[in-house]
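Loading example: each entry is read as two labelled lines plus one structure line.
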Amino acid sequence: MNSRQRRTFLVALAMLAPNFLGFVVFTAGPVVFSFIMAFTDWNLTLHNAYSNNKVMFVGLENFRALLGGEEWRYFSKYFYNTVYLMLIIPLDIALSLLAALALNSNIESLRGDRRHTGPVSIAVIAILGIIGMAMAGAHPFAIFMLVVTALVIILGLYLGQTSFRTLFYLPYLTSGVATYILWKALYRPETGPINRGLRIPLIGLSNTVAHTPAVLWNAAGWAMIIASAVLMVWFAVVMIKKYIYKDIGIAGVIFSCIGVALLLAGIAGIGHVISSLPHMVRPSPAAVVMLEPPKWLVDTTWSKPAIMLMSVFMSIGSNNMLMYLAALSNVPRNLYEAASIDGANGWQTFWNITWPQLAPTTFFIVIMHTIGGLQGGFDMARVMTQGGPAGSTTTLAYYLYERGFTDFKLGLASAIAWTMFAMIFVLTIINWRYGNKMVND
Amino acid sequence: MAIAAMSTNEAAQVHKKRFPVRLLIIFIVLVMLALFMMSPFIWQVLTSFKTVLDIEKGIWPTTWVFGNYVEVFKQIRFGRYYFNSIMIAVWVTTLQVSTSALAAFAFSRLRWPGRDKVFLMYLATMMIPGVVLMIPNFWLMLKLNLYNTYSGLIIPAAFSAFGTFLLRQFMLTIPSSLDEAATIDGADEFRVFTDIILPLTQPGLIVLAIFTFLGNYMSFFWPLILVKDDALRTLPVGLLFFDSAYGKQINLLMAGSVMSILPLIILFIILQKYLVKGIQMGAIKG
């Protein structure tokens, strides 16, 4: 190195030093350390300042326990929980996409329509004001909601996309402990607003079901189940046809089939519930049982769906939607124009132009959510359910916390962490290989 | 490289002189969706003004208790938690942004042996999930006597490969001709950094600062395991224990959580332009 290069090297070193030091001490070092520790029996109750025990290498013992030994029943159950919670991802993405599409079409009209917004807002205020005055003796809450609605409408008219985007993003932005505590209160079985709101319609539904022939409900439910099965088959056939014609790769087929399968499975599930309504309400010919809202977080069956519902709420307007908005605005205009010249209707335009153009974004979102889903769920579980009734909301991340920081079995916890890493690594590789391929098409 | 998220295309509208029914429907749907998404927050805010008896009665408070917000500060050390959260987040953000900016400059603007290999190491660790690092970092804090201290909360959180990565991306987009012009005029590397690169990277710095601040303000796992004393708790942990101890007093709980998320909302409304751009940049890159 000549002196010029050496100088540059020293300057670089100086600039890099703080960050690099922190990197080594808090990131790179810990990675190595954690890896080594996964192969030991490190346990803070045995190895601390007060005892003379030595940390022993135990080879693959921790992994053996996890993947077939004493810990397997926990590991498998919590892995199941984690994957179950991730099943909501297709719905998350679909809703974000819908929201992005809605927002995207919105901006192209009212923004350029200045002369309309003034009179329209006045009309809106006037109408709502009239309704409000008519309800003058009404409950203050109704008036409050009227005012809020008016505000939202006016904001939407004047600020267009930005105001809706902000409002949609708020649930995601504030998704932390404060919001989990809020939802915990919302989900309270007896006194929470969700169940209080559900009780009355459920009583109405129970009465309706009790007094109508059971066949109706059975038929409706089965119709839904059969319809979703048929749709699934039809979709799979369409995908396979596309694959044969080389319109789409095998990855595309797999991903879209899984996504659609999950959505349709949800619909089939609803169908199943509908078909069993008569039996639930009339278990025996004389008795009529009123449908009760579920106990959500304290019920082992409903705790996970409760969390999934909450996460849908938070994710509709989140980063997914923003990414879709950006991707949508990058779709070349001439594609749409060509399509409309060829006489394509809305659905065809979406399916053949918009959806493929969004494919890289969709892929990216799916992978990121899957990776996040594998390591997540800790905050929610700790705040809302402490791992859930009988471990039904314990995810792998919470499992790690339990073993590592409650039982202090840090060796085992490290093994859990690295097992999670292995899974995530596989996904990252898939992202790397297929992601690049898709983007470069 | 900036993505114009709001492309108004007048040409597409030319043949839309008739009243846009479809758009009206979409607008109505959007309004309803917006109201739906705000409903938990509306409940939250209204409940924060109720008396304890009112909580079960209905959504609208029969008596308005503004004192709930003050009561929260009395029942738990809420002011302290608030202070802790904000102070720690500010420290972490400052450290993170400054060290990352320096490092990103070294990676993007300077040539030195081993540069790309080291950067690859940074990239590799970004793939590692945070949970893997929690345990060793925890032990490290124990060993360095930083358990249950502010430094323990701040220092490990201040270093993330992601910050360097993000800023390097930003800096790479700045043409090197500017550097060369400055160097010819006699500026050394530090001058180039402070006078040329840093100002041009400002959007990136702001995005990183926002992400880091938000991430740290809401961070829960790390403060949970590291802190034993009530005086050092951050808002998320403080709220959690508030919930366990005073769970029945939902009105106070809601007041506390409203106050927790207020800074986030304010920050977001002011800075959303940068935030949105940052997120969208991530998507386009893939």
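Chain A touches chain B through 111 residues (CB under 8 Å).
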